[in-house]
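Lecture notes, continued. The same structure-token format from the folding unit now serves as the input rather than the output. Read the line below as a description of shape only.
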């Protein structure tokens, strides 16, 4: 036995490790926020219509972004280059930035680096490498506004 901690040392050797689970939860939150926006229906309706309820963290993230949306949009807008407007962003990039901004502003226990890295990875995955660089810059500016230079 190596003494290493991780997925293999838990009671369930097939359970996802914490970083993987958190990434999946963030991706699920993005997909639910995207569904709400594309169908033009309330987040609460999207959640209520699911055949299987999402995990607690997913619900917390989705409801948090929904509840704080106006302030988050202002925060992202203030962090964009003056030549850009929030409406100009792709729907997915905007949602990813809103989610990252929510975590940066309202979940101080989550490290800045983790929030930015996850946002960048999702943007690259869903929108491509250029989106990853763009999201990195905006999310870093949001982090400076919300948490100062701690990250």
């Amino acid at each position: 036995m190596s003494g290493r901690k991780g997925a293999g040392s838990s009671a369930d050797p097939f359970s996802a490790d914490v970083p993987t689970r958190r990434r999946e939860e963030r991706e699920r939150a993005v997909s639910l926020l995207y569904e709400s926006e594309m169908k033009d229906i309330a987040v609460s309706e999207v959640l209520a219509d699911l055949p299987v309820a999402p995990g607690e963290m997913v619900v917390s993230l989705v409801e948090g972004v929904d509840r704080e949306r106006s302030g988050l949009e202002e925060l992202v807008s203030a962090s964009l280059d003056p030549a850009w407007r929030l409406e100009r962003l792709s729907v997915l990039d905007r949602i990813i930035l809103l989610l990252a901004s929510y975590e940066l502003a309202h979940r101080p226990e989550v490290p800045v680096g983790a929030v930015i890295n996850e946002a960048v990875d999702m943007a690259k995955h869903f929108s491509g490498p250029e989106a990853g660089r763009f999201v990195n810059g905006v999310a870093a500016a949001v982090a400076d506004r919300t948490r100062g230079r701690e990250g």
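Point for the exam: The chain has one domain: 17-147.
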